[in-house]
Fold RNase adapter RapZ.
Amino acid sequence: MDSQKLETEVVIITGMSGAGKTVAIQSFEDLGYYCIDNLPPELLGTFINLMINSNKQPRNIAAVMDLRGGEMFHSLADSVNKLHEATSVAPKVLFLDAENEVLVRRYKETRRSHPLANSGLPLDGIKKERELLSDLKGRAQFIYNTSKMSPRQLREKIQEKFSPKGSNVFTVNVMSFGFKHGIPIDADLVFDVRFLPNPYYIEELRLKSGLNEEVSSYVLKWADTKTLIEKLTDLFSFMLPQYKREGKTQLVIAFGCTGGQHRSVTLAEYFGKLLKTEDKTVITHRDVTIRKE
């Protein structure tokens, strides 16, 4: 097995039902991990060997394993030991816990029944589950008590601990579009820049786009454009940290003009380059290649 394949990190997410495993697996997915829910422990080694021996770029793996697996769950400890021996991959176990009262309240709020509560009382199931998981909890490298954590705080804790070094969790997608072709359905923020002077009416600029220096210079020279840039720069400097703090992993900012050729492209390029200094930024121009009328 080559050294590149040994770089694969495996995190097993387990713990008490209602302690936040769904939020956890979503957080790992946002970090770029290959995620799988309710994987039978006996298939863990086979699955990981398949991943690390594939021809594709190795990916980190996060797998949720809990008592939904029934009898198969009890083989988890043995599966972890065998995995280390067979693949030289040492899985990290993340155990999510919470106080009994908190778990009972969460079950009542969701109106779900505990998988081990044969009597129908959540607390009975929680106590039985805690007893069954006591050995596994002792083997865990990471134990997070989520009793006083919000979903956002749990995401932040996981991102801080498991985010690959140098990775950008928060991605800003800046795009341009033409209103005549429809508003992008995946945009979080949409800015209409059709009030700015339109290069379409300048004959020598009509068949060019905002990617051309002549067009961008024309759009950017106006006082209204400079005012807009100033106000949006101030807005983004305020809003982006708030989105990050709330646990959002990406933001789509869309600039629209009539055809998506000139003004929107110019503004998308401007702010895409401006925001790239702090965050991972992707610039796309949805309609710039559509033939002009």
